[in-house]
Amino acid sequence: MDKNKNIIIAILAIVLIGSLYFNFQSKSETSNDKEQTTSKVSTDALFEKKQECASYRTAIEKKLLELNFQNENVVTTNHLDEIWFSPSMNTCLYSSNELWQYLKEKKIEYQYNIYDYLGNNLVMNVMEIPGSVSRVDALNAFNNRKEELKK
User: Fold this and answer.
1) Is 71 found in the same domain as 48?
2) In this structure, are 41 and 110 located in the same domain?
3) Are residues 7 and 45 in the same domain?
4) Are 128 and 113 in contact (CB under 8 A)?
5) Of 79, 136, 141, 146, whose CB count within 10 A is highest?
């Protein structure tokens, strides 16, 4: 009787394992098909979003030009660096750099910004501060964050 019981348990175990294997295999194939379809749709949508973001270039450049400032103490100049669609934030971002010239102190500082154009928000701001944050450190932090936001 124990021998028959062990045989039945072994058969049930083999059937269960086989069932799980084939069930997993068919789900895996279906998942791969969906990923390929989603990837194609995402690629097309991503292209359209990139085109949309690029269309804002003139408006962004105008906005940055309006931010330029000058008085007897300081001159600021803003430059557009790059515009891109951020899949992780699902919005159009642009990066800019600002040059701050302090006329009396005869010093220059650089500021690097990432803005959400559609949300009208500042995403990141890094400023070179002589004696504290070097231009290289500020640029590295800025470029690393830009790369993260492009994914």
Assistant:
1) no
2) no
3) yes
4) no
5) 146
The number of distinct structural domains making up the chain is 2
Separation between Cα atoms, residue 55 and residue 113, nearest integer Å: 20
DSSP state of 119: T
- Strand ranges in the chain using DSSP code E only, listed in sequence order: 69-70, 74-86, 91-102, 107-116, 121-127
* 74 plus 138 within the same structural domain: yes
Checking if the pLDDT of 51 tops 80, the result is yes
| Pairing mode of beta strands 91-102, 74-86 | antiparallel
For residue 127, the one-letter residue type is M
Q: Indicate if 9 and 68 belong to the same structural domain.
A: no
Contacts (Cβ under 8 Å, ≥6 apart) of 83: 53, 54, 56, 57, 60, 92, 93, 94, 117
Which of 90, 149, 97 lies closest to 118, judged by CA? 90
Provide the H-helix boundaries in 55-112: 57-67
Q: What pLDDT, in 10s, does the model give residues 57-106?
A: 999 999 999 999 999 999 999 999 999 999 999 999 999 999 999 999 88
